[in-house]
Amino acid sequence: MQSTHQLDLFPGCRVTLLLFKDVKNSGDLRKKAMEGSIDGSLINPTVIIDPFQILVATNKAVHLYKLGKMKTRTLPTEIIFNLSPNNNISEALKKFGISANDTSILIVYIEDGKKQIDQVDLISQVEGHPVSLKSLPEITNITEVKKIYKLSSQEENIGTLLDGVICRMSTKDVL
């Protein structure tokens, strides 16, 4: 069902990933997220190839949050923004956030010693079926991922698709 990881660089922070299929209320959830009434990032799982991709984005978001240098207003939005290969916030939210007609949703939330999330309440807001993260490859649209990250077939011969995605995410501030 869920996957919880402790961030190595921030031992007090735990990241939890919840994947849902057959979601019927994506529009309502998106609205709640925009209002800030959901404590988590609502991510389109069709453009996520591995949970490690989320952990990299989350680690960077927490790091920037602690430094006071986030580019977006909230930590959940910063996580979505950090998945993007470029610095356009609105484009990142469109590609990696959920839309009103999405049927699969990946919810990512962060807890630390001070902040705890009511997971039961969060899950109850989703009209869909929780599934294991092992189902992620069935949901991912590899063609769309390659298009978003502009990955070439030559790169796939050298490394994995995940390597190329993480590289794009990590170097966007440098290029």
Using the alpha-carbon principal axes, give the shape.
globular
Largest sheet: 5 strands, antiparallel
Return the string of H and E elements: EEHEHHHEHEHHHH
Number of strands: 5
Using only C-alpha atoms, the radius of gyration works out to 15 Å
Calculate the mean pLDDT score and round it.
Answer: 93
Give the class from helix and strand content and strand pairing. alpha+beta
Helix % is 40-55%
Q: What's the end-to-end separation, in Å?
A: 37 Å
Strand content: 5-15%
Number of helices: 9
Uncertain residue segments: none
Describe the structure.
This protein is an alpha+beta fold and about 180 residues long. Helices cover about 45% and strands about 15% of the residues. The protein has nine helices and five strands; from the N terminus they run E-E-H-E-H-H-H-E-H-E-H-H-H-H. Strands 1, 2, 3, 4 and 5 form a five-stranded antiparallel β-sheet that branches. Helix 2 crosses helix 3. The chain starts with a strand and ends with a helix.
